[in-house]
Amino acid sequence: MSIKSFAAKLYANWTRRQIDKWANRPIETQQKVFKSLVVKAKHTAFGKDHNFEDISSPKDFASQIPIRDYEALKPYVDRIVEGESDVLWPGKPLYFAKTSGTTSGAKFIPLTSDSMPTHIAAARNAILCYIAETGRSSFVDGKMIFLQGSPELSEKNGIKLGRLSGIVAHFVPSYLQKNRLPSWEVNCIEDWETKVNAIVKETIDQDMTIISGIPSWVQTYFEKLIDASGKPIGKLFTNLELFIYGGLNYEPYRPKFEQLIGRPINSIELYPASEGFFAFQDKQDDLGMLLQLDSGMFYEFIKSEEFFDDQPKIYSLDEVELGQNYVLIISTNAGLWRYNIGDTIQFTSLKPYKIKVSGRIKHFISAFGEHVIGSEVETAMQSGCAEHHSSINEFTVAPQVNPKEGLPYHEWWIEFSKPPKDIEAFAQTVDESLVQQNSYYKDLRVGKMLRKIVVRSLPENSFNRYMKSIGKLGGQNKIPRLSDNRKIADHLKTYLKS
Prior knowledge:
CATH class of the largest domain: Alpha Beta
Helix content: 25-40%
Strand order of the largest sheet: 6-3-7-8-9-10-11-15-14-13-12
Largest sheet: 11 strands, mixed
Distance between the termini: 55 Å
């Protein structure tokens, strides 16, 4: 055992104990975070506009500050972008994480000297919890790859900006720099296809032990490695220990990954976003992710079915229930106040508080009142693949409201890596899974308002071609699992015809 490996074990056990301290005192921890946020920001422009001086409880907080999304918070962000200090948080941000917006164009999410360390600590702690649980640490001596955006940053009025994953690359600890791949030069390549090919060349003869990235893009990387080497990933990287992922549910991809690798490997799910690093999987036998209660973020929750009410009920941490879909509302030490990030989550455990991401409040299908969400279609896809011994590269679902004949239906656009022998039987399994999961969908199917799903099998690289056509190929970009409109589906038709 190397000195680094031995030190990692000691550090991991200490870190696990520190995490357990706040995880076992969740309400007290969140109250402490809440008070700290309000006190520190009371002299900011936002704090003065919303009378932070008079806030003494979360109830006061909720009555004085409306829930906002980025578009509603944008007037304050614009002031920071123009160079003003003390707007949402004391001083100026260290960075802006630049992401694509909806109605407002580019979004500039502030990252402050208080918030940035929490992103780094959560990613580090996810690995340390794995070491503490399993006792395995030798992988820290191998090479680690993180498929991410370019670390090259631009600047606006003295504040550096770039993609979150590129910003995080500047914070890799010195003791990991020698282990980290790809090289800085390769990481700076903007074109995704060129970048992946360069990463393959740079890593094909290395002792890779950790690989991290969005499942769909890591799958592309694996396939290119196999094409170049003629070997399964497990033979190429004999000491590969961990796959770390976020952004997409891994389960629909797991069979394909195990086929590409040639054996199962352990995995850790993360829940990072530009707005905060919210949770990570801390136990191998529990797919729930530990909610980060001590990371400068105060949480509130709204039931997804009540979210669009005029005055939806706000649920505190001690009021949440297992299995219920909640819209996640955050207030952070980056100056995001009662901010709706657009995600829906479910609690999988209340002791400690663990969650899973169930979808996006804007990404659902309810063209007929069925309220189908992301986690339901992913579970249905998983059932179909398992029963019919198939695997996928990517998929998305859209409603077909006005078919040329017959009843309306949900249209599943799937790029199979291993198609089922019987597409109709596959569709039947997926449809039955949705019926079992969603009572609204069941009522529509039984009441003959909808017919069974229709599967459209797409040729290889269809989704990559689509993402490239809209300028979002690679990196942290991902296809919505489902949409309430046919924008993506109608575009994919062209690839089906070709």
